[in-house]
Amino acid sequence: VMNDEVGSIIQKYHLGGVILFAENVVGTEQTARLTDGLQKASPKLPLLITIDQEGGIVTRLQTGTNLPGIMALGATRSEKYAYQTGEIIGKELSSLGINVNFGPSLDANNNAGNPVIGVRSYSSNPELVSKLGTQTIKGLQSQNIAATVKHFPGHGDTGTDSHYGLPIVTHDKERLRSVELAPFQKAIDEGVDMVMTAHVQF
């Protein structure tokens, strides 16, 4: 349940949104009460209540459908399954009062030594990443969840985890346009709601 301090911070500073982590969402009823309390603390303008719910190793909700990771979804090459995955995640988030998902990841993972993306990528092929990512976005949006693509302009060919250091990508513009940027351009063309930037030097 939301504590009074959080409510007063929302009201005093006119916060526009909050992010929920695993420790904030320990059960279905508890999460629904929390999001309800958060929204009541912002009566004039609804809050963006966000979460990282990619499926696989990035799953914050401790209840709900246990979905495979994005790489497993990529192995199916199925646009139908990608859409259904987004739809399932979207239904569950919506039922809990969460309205923004920080996913899917649209990084084309073409570095086998990548310590942070790996199985969080559909594929090393930017065309497949584009197709499946777009369908996952549409599935989320079908449930009124704002989808957020990440990690723009691309974290797929890095050898450093950006949580602990600064990855450096040295590709030229042509390579970036054809590989790293292509899935993000497709998502933007298709109407994705948000884009999360990467902590990567280009």
Kindly provide the radius of gyration, computed on alpha-carbon positions and rounded to a whole number of angstroms.
Answer: 17 Å
Instruction: Give the quaternary arrangement of the chains.
Output: single chain
The topology string of helices and strands comes to HEHEEEHHEHEHHE
Q: What is the helical fraction, as a range of percent?
A: 25-40%
Enumerate how many helices there are, as a single number: 7
What is the number of strand segments? Answer: 7
Please describe the biggest sheet, giving its number of strands, its sense, and whether it closes into a barrel: 5 strands, parallel
Tally of discrete structural domains = 2
Distance between termini?
42 Å
Tell me the structural class.
alpha/beta
Strand content: 5-15%
Unreliable spans are none
Layout of helices and strands, plus pairs?
Layout: H1 4-13, E1 17-20, H2 28-40, E2 48-51, E3 53-55, E4 58-59, H3 70-76, H4 79-95, E5 100-101, H5 126-141, E6 146-152, H6 173-180, H7 182-189, E7 194-197
Parallel strand pairs: 1-2, 2-5, 5-6, 6-7
Antiparallel strand pairs: 3-4
Helix pairs in contact: 4-5, 5-7
Question: Brief overview, please?
Answer:
The protein has 202 residues and is an alpha/beta fold.
What would you say this structure looks like, in words?
This protein is an alpha/beta fold and 202 residues long. The protein folds into two domains: 1-51, no CATH class; 68-197, TIM Barrel, CATH 3.20.20. It is built from seven helices and seven strands; from the N terminus they run αβαβββααβαβααβ. It has helices at residues 4-13, 28-40, 70-76, 79-95, 126-141, 173-180, 182-189, and strands at 17-20, 48-51, 53-55, 58-59, 100-101, 146-152, 194-197. The strands form two sheets. The protein has a five-stranded parallel sheet, with helices on one face. Strand 1 (17-20), helix 2 and strand 2 form a beta-alpha-beta unit. It is globular, with a radius of gyration of 17 Å. The chain starts with a helix and ends in a 5-residue tail after the last strand. The model has no long low-confidence stretch (mean pLDDT 95).
